[in-house]
């Protein structure tokens, strides 16, 4: 296998399971040194062990993406252990489905602090380190719900629209530093978060999950590894002319 990311260091948030774990494993396969970060320490250490068993390089770093100090520590760990930071994958997120009139302050604040402020904090911590490396690539995880509206999901949709805006602003701001910033906008992906969301949907009179999937242009669920391939492309030199883009990977759900 081509070691496309040999000599590169990547920091992946929310990497203990689901899409984040898939991204971390795939980057390691492609030769990157990986900082696996999450709140779920045991699961995160397990991802590191998987990478090392396959001959890759990785360390685990506890990270609450809502905490700027945690971000500074994670970036410093990447620099101290692997010599620098080249790639940031802002993947951590939470989901909630509550309309505006019933969304509590706690729900709103947690979703916005995790999904939107977490991306902001991550980029703020990573940019100086990438400048020290002469450039880098950032891939933020938005959502198809950062491109269209939906019943309920008030905080979640607001947070993902914020990720899209942050991505575009950062792309314009840091292009002169040779730092590219893009976002992926996944739809229905087979992860533990989807299992949580299906439970939420079951209580929502406006959503029928199976019917929704069946009505997509590509009427199936994506696997996390499929999202990883897009993420790796955007982080790679093959995407050198891509910045400020938001790339749906949603079975065509937002095409019409």
From TrEMBL:
Top-rank taxon: Bacteria
GO terms of molecular function: oxidoreductase activity
Organism ancestry: Bacteria, Bacillati, Actinomycetota, Actinomycetes, Mycobacteriales
Record CDD domains: SDR_c
Protein keywords: Oxidoreductase
Residues forming coiled coils: none
Entry annotated with the keyword Calcium: no
Protein name per Swiss-Prot or TrEMBL: 3-oxoacyl-ACP reductase
Similarity comment text for this entry: Belongs to the short-chain dehydrogenases/reductases (SDR) family.
Species: Mycobacterium dioxanotrophicus
